[in-house]
Design goal:
With 294 residues, the chain is of the alpha/beta class. It folds into 3 domains: 112 residues, Alpha-Beta Complex (Conserved hypothetical protein from pyrococcus furiosus pfu- 392566-001, ParB domain); 54 residues, no CATH class; 61 residues, no CATH class. Helix content is 55%, strand content 12%. The strands form 2 sheets. The protein has a 5-stranded mixed sheet, sandwiched between helices. A two-stranded antiparallel ribbon has the order 6-7. A hairpin with a 7-residue loop joins strand 3 and strand 4. Helix 5 packs antiparallel against helix 6, helix 6 packs across helix 8 and helix 7 packs across helix 8.
């Protein structure tokens, strides 16, 4: 243990004398925090937030101009540039500090992997409720795709229910135009979820915005639109309980579900448009990642 500490200190002294630039990392590990020039910081590639609210940023800038940056930014060393740091948490504070004409900001330096950096950035933003539903969903999807996390593991990590995460991920199946409406605050996540099973969601979304419908009214509009595309004779022949079950499953899975009864048995039909949708169903059935064959 002592030998390792001595070796680390030796490398740090070597860095001070100008041997290898990457040995500056050894010095950082000896200090809990330090002041870093704002130009030595850059936004993290794992940042889940894509939009920064101008009004809230202005208020933060005024506060920092008056009192300074009270909470240090969490950063990690850039893998290729010795004096550059990547922001893991605190990008808003960094941006506001620049607007307030601060030359330096306090940072805490951590050695973090890409997965750890993304987890921390996502969790920090979720806990502060700063992300839009689409940004939050995209963050979860990155953790699943890039780092092979399960929905159960994510739920535990961020303190959310698995159903909350599953419902957000379903939003990513919507067309880009509707996701932009959610990001812009024109539609809520509740509005968007109701549109997932609709054949032409963009047209309905415009009608919802034009009429100023709430979520309950939107759900009724969606049911009406779905009923008009189904043969009346088929609906009339079905037991009301079966129809209700179809609707519940459709809302739960985010995909069109039909139940065909045949005596005491029957068949359950789930319609999907893409392999990603099928993969999502398989994940939920097997409680783990599963990729359908192309």
């Amino acid at each position: 243990m002592a030998a390792d500490e001595a070796k680390r200190l030796g490398r740090g002294l070597s860095a001070l004398l100008g041997d290898e630039a990457e040995d500056y990392a050894s010095l950082d590990r000896l200090r809990l925090s330090k002041m870093v020039p704002v130009e030595f910081l850059q936004p993290g590639k794992s940042q889940p937030r894509k939009r920064f609210d101008t009004e809230s940023n202005a208020a933060l800038t005024d506060s920092i101009r008056e009192k300074g940056v009270l909470q240090p930014l969490l950063v990690r060393r850039h893998p290729k540039q010795a004096n550059v740091y990547e922001i893991v948490a605190g990008e808003r504070r960094w941006r506001a500090a620049q607007q307030a004409s601060l030359r330096e900001v306090p940072v805490v330096i951590k050695e973090l992997s890409d997965s750890e950096a993304l987890e921390i950035a996502l969790i920090e933003n979720i806990q502060r409720e700063d992300l839009t539903p689409i940004e939050e969903a995209a963050g979860y999807q990155r953790l699943i795709d890039e780092f092979k996390h399960t929905q159960e593991a994510l739920a535990q990590a961020v303190g959310k229910s698995r159903s909350h995460i599953a419902n957000l991920l379903r939003l990513l199946t919507l067309p880009e135009s509707i996701r932009e409406m959610v990001n812009d605050g024109v539609l809520s996540a509740g509005h968007a979820r109701a549109l997932i099973t609709v054949d032409a969601p963009e047209a309905l979304a415009k009608k919802i915005v034009r009429r100023g419908l709430n979520v309950r009214q939107t759900e009724r509009l969606v049911r009406k639109a779905q009923n008009t595309t189904t043969l009346p004779t088929t609906r009339a022949e079905k037991d009301p309980n079966t129809v209700a079950l179809e609707e519940n499953l459709t809302q739960l899975l985010g995909l069109k579900v039909l139940i065909e009864t045949r005596g005491e048995g029957g068949a359950l039909k789930i319609s999907y448009k893409t392999l990603d949708q099928l993969d999502g169903i398989l994940q939920r059935l097997t409680h783990g990642p599963h990729r359908a064959a192309d």
